[in-house]
TrEMBL record:
InterPro entries: Dimeric_a/b-barrel, YCII
Top-rank taxon, per record: Bacteria
Gene3D superfamilies to which the protein is assigned, alphabetical: Dimeric alpha+beta barrel (3.30.70.1060)
Segments traversing the membrane: none
Domain YCII-related residue range list: 32-97
Organism: Pseudoxanthomonas helianthi
Protein name from the UniProt record: YCII-related domain-containing protein
Family: Belongs to the YciI family.
Length: 121
């Protein structure tokens, strides 16, 4: 089994009405429920939309420091993500497609490196 990271940048969402967004929640929840039933679900969730609500932990200077805001200010930032544990890339494509259809915006998919896998602990 391999873990995949399915995510979107907030800027990919586009402009939509509140009514439109209201129709997406139940669709996304149904996909998560389907993932759980299939035994591939690890985690899914949206992130706070304002990157200014983020904070950073930085130890690159040799001293751990924390500061408010994103580490790097950029016009694109992760809006939400899903982690799945599936048998192969074809299965990851299947679930990423379901997430993209439910949300209504593109999703990028990346496989976790082997050393980061949960069962490697």
């Amino acid at each position: 089994m391999s873990e995949y990271f399915i995510y979107f940048n907030q800027q990919w969402v586009g402009e939509h009405s509140e009514e439109w967004f209201g129709t997406r929640g139940p669709l996304a929840k149904a996909v998560v429920d389907e993932m759980k039933a299939a035994g591939v679900y690890v985690f899914a969730g949206g992130l706070e939309e304002d990157p200014e609500d983020a904070f950073c932990a930085d130890a690159t200077s040799g001293t751990l420091t924390f500061r408010d805001g994103p580490y790097v200010r950029t016009p694109q930032f992760v809006g939400g993500f899903t982690v799945i544990d599936v048998s192969d890339e074809q299965a990851a494509r299947f679930w990423a497609g379901k997430v993209a259809e439910a949300c209504g915006w593109p999703q990028e998919v990346r496989r976790f490196k082997a050393w980061s896998r949960r069962d490697a602990r």
